[in-house]
Amino acid sequence: MIVVPAEMAPFIDVADLTIWDGGDVAPIRQARFYLPSYMAGEWAFEVMRDLADLEVCQLPTAGYEHALAHLPPGVTLCNAAGVHDASTAELAVGLMLTSLRRLDDMARGMPRGEFLHDRFDALADKRVLVVGAGGIGQALARRLEGFECDVILVGRTAREGVRARADLDDLLPEADVVVLALPLDDSSRGMVDARFLSRMHDGALLVNVARGGIADTHAILAEAGRLRFALDVTDPEPLPVEHPLWRAPGVFITPHVGGNTTAFLPRIGRLVTDQVRRWQSGAPLSNVIVS
Amino acid sequence: MIVVPAEMAPFIDVADLTIWDGGDVAPIRQARFYLPSYMAGEWAFEVMRDLADLEVCQLPTAGYEHALAHLPPGVTLCNAAGVHDASTAELAVGLMLTSLRRLDDMARGMPRGEFLHDRFDALADKRVLVVGAGGIGQALARRLEGFECDVILVGRTAREGVRARADLDDLLPEADVVVLALPLDDSSRGMVDARFLSRMHDGALLVNVARGGIADTHAILAEAGRLRFALDVTDPEPLPVEHPLWRAPGVFITPHVGGNTTAFLPRIGRLVTDQVRRWQSGAPLSNVIVS
Lengths: 291, 291
Prior knowledge:
Strand content of chain A: 15-25%
Oligomer: homodimer
Radius of gyration of chain A: 21 Å
Largest sheet of chain A: 7 strands, parallel
CATH superfamily of the largest domain in chain A: NAD(P)-binding Rossmann-like Domain
């Protein structure tokens, strides 16, 4: 049986889906192909140990560490790389424009009727460093093409159109905007530290649409004011109500909403449709993490 | 003499500029080519009647009604069409993303440490109607190319790639976002009225980066909540502190900051450099409003 969450079912063009509506887990027990809910709790992965016939767990997220810990032997695990690229890349543009043009200050001034006219930064003419040349970084670069800014993609290693992460020391001082769009792993954890930020010029903007753990929160707090920050992800997350980052100068925070938009359902639907058809016809699956 | 404001002078690549620093008006008196300040008051145009040698008034704005009223006979008036396109078009994208993805609500929630995670609209997959197919409309369409949305340009009359304003009745119900990027004139004044808004579907977004007078404020207030609004221009403007539009549901307001950004100085500099060279060599000027 192919078990999918109710909200995703209408977008999956496959016959004989078993729809899980969030209630009784009995339908999940029969799963041979299992698509957990988006934003599912630990439970949705622990349940895999009770699924005697499970062959494939297709995640609706790009991250997979939470599923890996509960994956029974012999089960294939696939992630949803690509599904969140459009939504996350457009949020990065929204964060850049909000912070550069002070739309956050204007929103906060509205209840007091504050008409905050002044000359602020445009994105036009800026040099933008996109750190991460994978799906999100490339989707962001495509979106920035029409904005009259200068975009440099930075990947793990240099290749055509991509600079190497090792060159960041030289690239950072020239950047007006630095966007983090790379995976969290041993090479990126804590990468944005006091030294990294010290290479950025006064008034430059750091945008994080990747993972909170890539940037050191104490380093951000120490530079807030000299630099600007627009962060969809933080460490810790969710950010506690009393955390000083909420009220640090020049910091704009959104609550990890990079991927969770209306763009999600049609895109997960297309991926899962394709994956189920591959699985049914014995073709190799895409996005395989463990097989 | 070529009289230019101090802030623009470094961007104008022409010898022997006379720089007006905002103080004594004596330097302006000798002007043969006059570039008024940006955001200049009425005075900067009234002064033209005292400029015996004036040949050209080059405005730093696209709007020109305020100068026309004081233009002495025989003086050529040019506007700055094109100079604000980049900045205004990118603000339109910023307003769309801010409103669709609720970045304004998130900014307002920050002082209280509110982590407002939920699923909101993406720009991806949306149908965007750009009303106004001139410089700003085209600059906006170029910027939207990478966003996986469907963009329809609407001009005064139909042509290749542009639908006619007369088709709006049919186009509005299918639009998720309508952006106003057309000039204010007799044909557009009050165009967005109760009937226009009633054609838009529940939850659709109206963005105005053109002029406040194109949209009827009472009609906006009546539809706020059913529709969303992101307005860089309003009627009246500046919006009084106590005006209900500041606190209407689903309305985001910015204080007419479409053009006034860091993008302005290099672009006005390039235009004026070209215009002065044309004038000095006897070539026809661009952007002529009255000659």
